[in-house]
Write a structure and sequence with these properties.
It is a single chain. The chain is of the alpha/beta class. The chain has a single domain (44-292), classed as Metallo-beta-lactamase, Chain A. 20% of the residues lie in helices and 23% in strands. It has 9 helices and 13 strands. It has helices at 2-8, 124-129, 148-151, 166-172, 175-178, 183-186, 248-251, 261-278, 288-292; strands at 27-28, 48-59, 76-87, 90-94, 116-119, 140-142, 161-165, 194-197, 203-204, 211-215, 224-230, 234-238, 281-283. The protein has an 8-stranded mixed beta sheet with strand order 1-8-7-6-4-3-2-5. Strands 9-10-11-12-13 form a 5-stranded mixed beta sheet, with helices on one face. The radius of gyration is 18 Å and the shape is globular.
Length: 302
C-alpha cells in the first residue's frame, strides 16, 4: 500500500529536466506501421473507439493545475479514462489509467500530505475481458505521456508494439525516472518492440490516416495527443493532459508543474488549429463532463 501511495504523488511531479529539440522526423527501433501496405479491407466501417473508466482523482484543491493562482481552494474530481481503438489493422490502447492495484484498495488511496483521493472502480484487465480481449491481444500501445495515471498498467502490454515520442521515452528511462516510484509501472517497456516518433511530424498508426498521433510537448518533454477519424461520429481528438480542468482550455491555464510553459502554450495553439482544421470533437481527458459524454462502456463510438 505504501508503494501505491507514493505512486499517486507522481501525478504532480514535473518530467525530467531537459530541453526539447525536435530532430528530423524519423522512426526508430522498428519499421513503422505507416510504411506497411494499407489493409486490404476498408478500415472506416470497422473503426471503433471505446472509453473505459480507468480511475478517478478527487482533489480537495486544484491550485496546482493553474500557475496563475486562479483555481486555489477549488475542489474537483477528475476523470482518468483509457481508450481502446479497434481497427482492422489491430487494436491500439491509448493510456492505461492508474494501476489496477488501486481497485483492490477498499476505499482507494489517500496519499498523506497530498490533496487527492485516488480510486479505480474496475480493473483494466476486466474491462478488456468484457470485449473478449486480454493484454496480449493488444497490438499497439501508446500514452499521451509518462505520468502514473496514464501509464499505471503499462507493463501488462510489454508484448505490444509501443509507439512513443522519442523525447518522452528518453525522459521515462532517464536516471531521474529510474529512481521514481512510478518507474515500476512501465519498466518492462524498455525492451518492448518500439516505434519512436522523432521530429515534428505526426505519426499515422495504421497507414490510412484514420488514427494519428500528434506531438504536443510542454506538460512533459514528449506529450502527445491522438486524432481518431470515426466513420459515423467524425473526428475525435483525445488531448491527454493538455487541459486538466473544464476552465483550462478557455483560460489557457498552465499547471505549475509542467515541464515547459512556452511549449505548453504553443501546443495548445497547435491542438486548437488541428481541431479547427479537422472539425474534431475535442475530448479533455481529465474533464468529467467530457468523459460522461462518451458512450457508456462497452458501447463504442463509431
Amino acid at each position: 500500500m505504501k508503494k501505491i501511495l507514493l505512486l499517486a504523488t507522481c501525478v504532480v511531479l514535473a518530467a525530467c529536466s531537459q530541453t526539447h529539440t525536435p530532430p528530423a522526423a524519423t522512426t526508430a527501433d522498428t519499421a513503422a506501421p505507416a510504411d506497411s501496405p494499407a489493409p486490404a479491407a476498408a478500415a472506416a466501417p470497422a473503426l471503433k473507439l471505446y472509453a473505459m473508466n480507468c480511475g478517478e482523482l478527487e482533489f480537495a484543491d486544484v491550485d496546482m493545475f493553474a500557475d496563475d493562482g486562479s483555481m486555489k481552494g477549488v475542489a474537483r474530481t477528475l476523470a482518468d479514462p483509457c481508450y481502446l481503438i479497434r481497427h482492422p489493422g489491430g487494436d491500439l490502447l491509448w493510456d492505461s489509467g492508474v494501476p489496477d492495484a488501486v481497485a483492490d484498495a477498499p476505499d482507494g488511496v489517500r496519499p498523506e500530505g497530498f490533496p487527492v483521493h485516488v480510486t479505480r472502480p474496475r480493473k483494466l484487465v476486466d474491462e478488456l475481458a468484457e470485449l473478449g480481449l486480454s493484454p496480449p491481444d493488444i497490438e499497439y500501445l501508446s500514452f499521451s505521456h509518462m505520468h502514473f495515471d496514464h501509464t499505471g498498467n503499462a507493463n501488462l502490454f510489454a508484448a505490444s508494439t509501443w509507439i512513443v515520442d522519442a523525447d518522452e521515452r528518453a525522459a521515462m528511462f532517464s536516471d531521474k525516472a529510474r529512481g521514481s516510484d512510478e518507474f515500476a509501472n512501465y519498466s518492462a517497456l524498455e525492451n518492448a518492440r518500439t516505434v519512436q516518433i522523432e521530429g515534428d511530424a505526426d505519426y499515422d498508426v495504421f497507414g490510412d490516416g484514420s488514427v494519428t498521433i500528434h506531438q504536443t510537448p510542454g506538460h512533459t518533454p514528449g506529450h502527445t495527443v491522438l486524432l481518431v477519424k470515426l466513420p459515423q461520429s467524425g473526428p475525435v481528438l483525445l488531448t491527454g493532459d493538455m487541459w486538466h480542468l473544464a476552465e483550462s482550455r478557455e483560460k489557457r491555464l498552465v499547471p505549475s508543474f509542467n515541464f515547459n510553459r512556452e511549449q505548453t502554450l504553443a501546443s495548445m495553439d497547435k491542438v486548437e488549429a488541428l481541431a479547427k482544421a479537422t472539425g474534431a470533437r475535442v475530448v479533455r481527458q481529465h474533464v468529467a463532463e467530457d468523459f460522461a459524454a462518451m458512450p457508456a462502456f462497452p458501447k463504442p463510438l463509431e
